[in-house]
Specification:
Elements: H1 34-47, H2 49-61, H3 69-103, H4 112-126
Helix pairs in contact: 1-3, 2-3, 3-4
InterPro entries: CHCH, NDUFA8
Keywords: Disulfide bond, Electron transport, Membrane, Mitochondrion, Mitochondrion inner membrane, Repeat, Respiratory chain, Transport
Pfam families: CHCH (PF06747)
Length: 150
Amino acid sequence: MSANKQATFTHTKFVDPTPLPESVPKVDELGVTSAPLKSASFFIGQYCKEYNDDFMLCKSENNDPKHCLTEGRKVTRCAINLITKLRENCGKEFEAHWQCLEKNNQELSACRTPERTFNTCVFDKLGLEKKIPGTPEGSEQIHNKKNPVY
């Protein structure tokens, strides 16, 4: 026998009101959803590599979240800087690519055409080239192949 029970949801936000210490620099949120982040992810990885490496090194030294707040803020600030540059220089191409990802369940393979246009724009205007980590040396990147075999 089953029972029907009404779902109850809380209307309070789970936010810790404790302010951060003065030693932790203030930084805004990125202000983007998962699709724009996925669209720009390889460029963020390349553009913010030094900050990401510092953050990961800090995390490996100490697992306490408070220990690496400063490094994490630097990574966020760098990503904000890149997203702003992408919007200013390649806004139309960037939006076309992340909208495609949004409509295709975040599948990169379904959005190769707008991705190529976006990658070309970013290379021409910002000098960043998309390189997927772990790709074997000398082999063509999957997003550059005309007829990829999966």
